[in-house]
Design a protein that fits this description.
By secondary structure, the protein is mainly alpha-helical. 72% of the residues lie in helices and 1% in strands. It has 10 helices and 2 strands; from the N terminus they run αααααββααααα. The chain has helices at 3-30, 38-61, 77-97, 110-133, 144-147, 160-179, 189-225, 235-265, 276-302, 307-325; strands at residues 152-153, 156-157. Strands 1-2 form a two-stranded antiparallel sheet. α1 runs antiparallel to α9 (276-302) and α8 (235-265) packs antiparallel against α9. The two termini are 39 Å apart. The relative contact order is 0.14.
Length: 327
């Protein structure tokens, strides 16, 4: 199997794993939340949106090694918007978890978080303004040289700089919110936070690593992307970008697993006690199912195996996991 085929297999399998895990978590959150809690609706909806993104990512990769060009996603401004929103959504989720809106006076660094939210909002508006200046449509593909047109600093398009700043700022402020949350008003709420905090802190640290990798990739690859058409990039550059894409996608899978452990730890994001032991068993079985199913399906798609074999593997995996769940 060639290097391109191996990268395609890995990207397709991990994307499908992320899709399954995010959809499962999103449904668990939305079916257990307090109906009057808008923040929980936003977080559950964000998980489902993230799952949809990885579904489209998997569909694109499934076209074969010849379609494995991460720069192709950059031709769709809607993908830029989704990537831009994820760090902001993570920061908002951590502020909600820390009681920023429920107990503003009791949370340390409240004024700093308020200032940072204002700054992040400003960065979003500036970036949208830069995109509007080049007359982009969210639903129509454009060539990357056209999207990245405009002023440059050291060969880096100015539109990239606020994006990188926003990623690092959101993750850093999320760590601060986790370290100094407001006291919880719910019975045993502080205990719930102590159980969930290590998982969320680990997930945020991995998110920081993802942000650093994304920032480094943008600064490394953007100068050439701004000068060449996406379809005419060197094969070596495409493989390098695909490898970085695989690493980032795998790290995001680690973030999802850590977030799932935090959700199960104790009533995180749901405002009600959950059956931790049974739910943790189900979560681990879902992870096992996703790994086995997506690895087999990814291999069959990349190698051009007849679809019936992929369907048989899916049926076997679902049957085995259901049997284990009812054991």
């Amino acid at each position: 199997m060639s290097a391109a085929a191996l990268l395609s297999w890995g990207l397709l399998a991990i994307s499908l794993v992320n899709f399954i895990l995010l959809i499962w978590l999103g449904l668990i959150v939305l079916t257990n939340i307090n109906r009057r809690d808008g923040g929980a609706w936003i977080i559950g909806g964000g998980m489902l949106t993230g799952g949809a993104f990885f579904l489209f990512h998997a569909v694109a990769i499934s076209q074969g090694p010849e379609a494995m060009n991460p720069a192709l996603f950059g031709e769709w401004p809607l993908a830029w918007a989704g990537g831009f929103a994820q760090p902001c959504a993570w920061y908002i989720a951590m502020l909600w978890y820390a009681g920023f809106w429920k107990h503003p006076g009791a949370m340390r660094h409240h004024h700093l978080h308020k200032t940072m939210l204002t700054l992040i909002t400003g960065v979003v508006l500036v970036t949208l303004g830069l995109l509007a200046m080049i007359r982009m449509s969210l639903f129509e593909p454009y060539e990357l040289p056209y999207i990245l047109a405009g002023p440059v600093v050291q060969q880096i398009p100015v539109v990239i700089i606020p994006y990188v700043m926003m990623i690092l700022l959101c993750i850093g402020m999320s760590l601060l919110a986790l370290r100094h949350p407001a006291p919880s008003s719910r019975l045993m709420g502080d205990l719930a936070r102590r159980r969930a905090r290590p998982w969320l802190t680990a997930a945020t640290l991995v998110m920081l690593l993802v942000g650093l990798l994304v920032s480094g990739a943008l600064f490394a690859f953007t100068p050439m992307l701004a000068r060449h058409a996406t379809q005419h990039l060197p094969a070596e550059m495409i493989l390098d970008m695909a490898l970085v894409d695989l690493i980032i996608t795998t790290l995001i899978a680690a973030v999802i697993v850590l977030l799932g452990e935090g959700v199960i730890a104790y009533e995180l994001l749901t405002a009600r006690a959950l059956p931790r032991r049974g739910l943790r068993r189900d979560w681990h079985l879902v992870i096992l199912l996703a790994l086995v199913f997506c690895t087999a399906v990814g291999f069959s798609i990349i190698q051009g195996v007849p679809p019936i074999y992929g369907a048989l593997v899916a049926a076997l995996a679902l049957t085995a996991v259901h049997a284990l769940a009812t054991w």
